[in-house]
Design goal:
six-stranded mixed sheet; 24 helices
């Protein structure tokens, strides 16, 4: 195992004869190659900035414009209508040659055309009425809007559309208030609804107008009026553990384990992650689009995927209750999401020890076989953990304020700071787990254990602050734990699915299950990190572990796949698969709890620049009417009609959320403004205290990455997250191809009214609901 001094470029000793300087040529070479790699990255970034800056035009189009203007002048015509001659009059220096002035005019004309095209594209991307038109019926306006294809350009880079995406609009106060009243109507009796209506009217006619003015001012100044406040007040200022409460997980292939060798699986997939990072840095990834269209989505969240860590901080100043862990803006804070431009290593945890593993040697990325060899060295290393090191990661799993204080007191200098820096600045975090995980057909509880392990592990063997951690189990299974503040799950899911497909279908394994290729014998080994943990810090680690362990023990997780049918059969019934599942969840929850509840479904707002999410309130008057009719024994015709009405209503709400006409982000920002102004709003206070007892989200599957026709067994089970409310459920679902659905359902043992066996009810009513709509 490499010693710490191998990472030092030079050493010196002082003797009576003077200073004896010892240079490490290997270290100096690595420093030189690292610098070369960094400069190459800067050059590529500069080139991509220019290419993205002129998009949807291309650099070659400049040459075309210049040749066209010069060719026209050669025929003794003046395409500039006298502007070329006037250029001389307004230049500070003389340009004697007419051809030079023509080139200058051509460049100005080219830039004007680029500006015009970008403005046209921005206006076209601001048009969203096409989403609300029925299938097969297109208005004349939408037919003209289809010109967006012409302005979309060819071969765009990842960030080519960023400058053309529209800003998120601020809805009218009246519209948001009315939509909120409609959403809570099925959850309130007449008396409660009248009281809420009164609060809404007072807010709309009074304080709301003042808050709205400030919010519109922010929307004019900022790129996105929601995203920065959402990241800060919903994620970063939270005091409770991010493990379970915020972080989420992703699972491996359901039916296939490409190799049973832990180190080999790590070798291929870690190499694939760095290939993905290379594509990301070069912007070679295709921009994400709405499926089946050319409409691009914002890619800004991709920027902080690697080399990123969430830093805890302390709040100082007067506190104000913000509900649901949101804090008063009128305090100072130190917490942030820290991103570094580059990192050439990963941080690895195994049996209580932390290692730094370099991914580059002699200026090149290590091959999968070389990474496997390095991982195997860590697995074989017999050295014990340092005092206090084994459960150090529990600090990131417990409450945030104790972790912030411990970080400032014990990890701000010396060897502890250096080792912590190595973890926080790593490309990502890796855990080599000694347990075996993964589902088996004859024991469904194994997949539940697998999901729980990815969600929280042992509470100290993950670094929950890292942008993401990859977990490799002893039997070759792997999984993912993602931190939520820097981006939403679909962004990390895209990279995860790229890694899964690259691992199996491009890199592969030899007959013995090892990675392919050879190993360079001159590779330096992994570097074990050193720590000096005082007893006081060990007490803090134990305290954080106790908090985290209690939370982990309280979580109940159940994962199951529904294979009787999938989205293919649902679409044949002319129903949106997402609306179908949401209505099924409403039906299942009502049967399970005997009541309706405020339901959260995450919808993306990435049609807008720096957009993240919006809430779809899935419990509607229409969905409740359908459930009551079905439970009340109404005839099939009535149930079918109500089902389709509820489905159409859900789709309408989903489209409105995607196009900036949601409810909750607008009200949230108005609430933040009220706290800045130090004014109280009974309406906003009550709205933001409403509990989400059913929190749902759909995991997207990148169908172009998987060949589910020829390889149906190579399908991931998706991922999940913890319950938002202590007395509620967290439900994540995914359509796996055309013939399968998967569900991840979480709740808490401490609540006697919630049990994960709700999944059985869900499966039963999926079949029942299908029977109702299939007979159309």
């Amino acid at each position: 195992m490499a010693e710490a001094h191998q990472a030092v470029a030079f050493q010196f000793t002082v003797s009576p004869d003077g200073i004896d300087l010892h240079l490490s040529h290997q270290a100096l070479t690595e420093i030189y190659l690292s610098g070369v790699r960094s400069w190459k990255k800067r050059v590529i970034g500069l080139k991509n900035s220019v290419v993205t800056g002129v998009y949807p035009a291309s650099l070659s189009s400049w040459l075309f414009v210049v040749i066209a203007i010069l060719a026209t002048m050669y025929t003794r015509s003046d395409p500039s209508m006298g502007l070329i001659a006037k250029i001389q009059e307004h230049l500070p220096c003389a340009v004697p040659d007419a051809w030079c002035r023509a080139v200058l005019f051509s460049t100005m004309l080219w830039l004007l055309l680029i500006f015009t095209m970008r403005m046209c594209l921005k206006q076209l991307l601001s048009y969203h009425r096409w989403m609300f038109e029925k299938h097969g019926k297109m208005s004349n306006t939408t037919k003209v809007w289809a010109l967006v294809r012409i302005f979309s350009g060819r071969k765009p880079l990842l960030y080519s559309y960023q400058g053309s995406l529209p800003n998120l609009p601020v809805p009218l106060i009246k519209d948001t208030v009315n939509r909120h009243l409609e959403s809570v109507r099925p959850l309130m009796d007449d008396t409660e609804y009248e009281r809420m209506t009164s609060l809404s009217e007072d807010f709309e006619s009074g304080l709301g107008k003042r808050l709205q003015w400030y919010l519109k001012l922010k929307a004019l100044w900022a790129t996105n009026y929601v995203s920065d406040w959402w990241e800060e007040y919903v994620y970063l200022r939270g005091r409770s553990p991010i493990m379970v409460n915020s972080n989420y997980y992703g699972m491996d292939f359901m039916y296939v384990t490409p190799t049973p060798i832990q180190a080999a699986r790590a070798g291929n997939s870690i190499h694939a992650y760095f290939l993905y990072r290379r594509k990301l840095n070069k912007e070679e990834l295709k921009p994400t689009r709405i499926p089946g269209t050319v409409i691009p989505l914002c890619s800004a969240q991709c920027e902080r995927m690697f080399n990123t860590t969430r830093i805890p901080g302390e709040e100082t100043g007067k506190e104000t209750d913000m509900h649901t862990q949101r804090r008063c803006p009128l305090v100072t804070h130190l917490y942030t999401v820290q991103h570094w431009q580059d990192s050439d290593y990963i941080a690895v945890y195994h049996r209580g020890r932390y290692f730094r593993l370099r991914m580059y040697h002699a200026g090149r990325l290590l091959s999968p076989r070389e990474i496997e060899s390095q991982i195997q060295k860590i697995l074989d290393d017999p050295s014990p953990p340092s005092k206090g090191e084994a459960k150090l990661g529990a600090l990131t799993a417990g409450d945030r304020i104790p972790w912030a204080k411990a970080r400032a007191k014990y990890f701000s200098s010396g060897v502890n700071k250096r080792s912590l820096d190595f973890i926080e600045k790593a490309a990502f975090f890796v855990t080599l787990d000694d347990d075996e995980q993964g589902g088996v057909a004859d024991d469904p509880t194994r997949i539940d254990s697998y999901a729980k392990s990815l969600l929280h592990g042992k509470c100290y063997d993950r670094w929950f602050d890292k942008s993401f951690s990859v977990v490799y189990f002893k039997n070759g299974k792997m999984g993912l734990n993602g931190e939520h503040s820097w981006a939403d799950a679909p962004v990390l899911s895209h990279a995860w699915q790229y890694v899964l497909t690259t691992d199996c279908f491009q890199l592969g394994y030899n007959a013995e299950g090892h990675c392919k290729g050879e190993v360079d014998s001159s590779l330096p080994g992994p570097q074990k990190l050193n720590w000096e943990i005082p007893p006081e810090c060990e007490e803090q680690i134990s305290g954080s572990l106790a908090v985290a362990q209690a939370l982990a023990d309280d979580v109940d997780v159940h994962v199951f796949s529904f294979e009787e049918f999938g989205k293919g059969k649902i679409k044949k019934c002319r129903v949106s698969p997402d609306a179908f599942i949401q209505l099924t969840l409403q039906l299942a929850h009502y049967r399970n709890q005997g009541r309706f509840c405020l339901t959260y479904e995450a919808s993306m707002t990435r049609l807008f620049k720096e957009g993240r999410t919006e809430t779809v309130r899935s419990c509607t008057n229409e969905s409740c009417a359908f459930v009551r009719a079905l439970e009340g024994g109404e005839d099939a015709d009535v149930c079918r009609r109500l089902f389709h009405e509820a489905s159409e209503k859900h789709q309408q709400l989903y489209r409105m959320a995607m196009t900036g006409a949601g409810i909750d982000r607008h009200l949230f920002c108005l609430y933040v403004v009220s706290k800045y102004l130090q004014v109280e709003s009974p309406f906003l206070k009550e709205v933001l205290s409403e509990p989400w007892r059913l929190s749902t989200s759909q995991t997207p599957l990148q169908v172009e990455m998987f060949d589910l026709v020829n390889h149906p067994e190579y399908v991931s089970c998706g991922g999940g997250f913890g319950p938002v409310a202590d007395d509620g459920y967290g439900v994540s679902y995914c359509a796996l191809g055309e013939k399968m659905l998967s569900f991840h359902i979480t709740c808490k043992h401490s609540c006697p009214n919630t049990v994960s066996s709700m999944t059985v009810v869900t499966a039963k009513y999926l079949l029942y609901t299908t029977f109702v709509i299939a007979s159309i």
